[in-house]
Design a protein that fits this description.
The protein has 191 residues and is α+β, with helices and mostly antiparallel strands. 50% of the residues lie in helices and 23% in strands.
């Protein structure tokens, strides 16, 4: 819970009493490596905070290729926001890449917190804005940078994540083949 508290207090200030009310509805769930937190087609009934471990959040395209939206490690929030918000089947799957722990809150409990603690609505608005900014930056980078530039940006921005991933997983995030990523890495190592 300390990691969650730190994440929350980086965005809003809660008194001790408010913090106790906020943390109460979260349920700690554990996942073994390769276990799914959510599968495409299920309804996402939680918003999760990664307490320990690493997850991949991905979609399988119509041609069978895996497209990683993001990886989530300790201190990151995870879920399928469209499925969670609209209670429709998820387009994303979420799988543990390591033995992991997630603090989960249900849609009802989250909405109840909005009524009890107005600061919580502000917290999730701030987090949503940060997600939109990150997504916008990623889309712009994807449209304007080469695969090599995308790879270099990723390893510079998320060194703590890259070392926990396979090259196939990084390639799926970048939207390139594993073989092409190998060529990029060889080219970089020669520089």
């Amino acid at each position: 819970m300390e990691l969650l508290k730190k994440n929350v207090t980086n965005n809003v200030s809660l008194s001790d009493d408010e913090w106790q009310k906020f943390r109460q509805p979260f349920e700690l769930k554990t996942f073994k490596k390769k276990e799914f937190l959510l599968r495409e087609g299920e309804i996402c009934r939680f918003e999760g905070f990664v307490n320990k471990g690493c997850f991949r959040v991905y979609h399988i395209g119509s041609k069978g290729f895996e497209h990683v939206l993001y990886f989530a490690i300790e201190g990151w929030w995870i879920g399928d926001i469209d499925s969670f918000t609209n209670q429709i089947p998820a387009q994303l799957s979420i799988q543990a890449l390591e033995d992991s722990e997630v603090l989960c809150i249900s849609k009802k409990d989250k909405e109840d917190l909005y009524d009890v603690l107005p600061k919580v609505e502000r917290l999730f608005r701030i987090m949503s804005q940060k997600r939109v900014v990150a997504l916008q930056r990623r889309v712009i980078s994807k449209m304007s940078k080469s695969a090599e530039e995308l790879y270099l940006d990723y390893i510079a921005t998320y060194p703590q994540i890259v070392q926990r991933l396979t090259s196939r997983q990084v390639a799926a995030y970048l939207g390139i083949s594993h073989e092409f990523l190998s060529k990029i890495r060889k080219k970089i190592s020669k520089k």
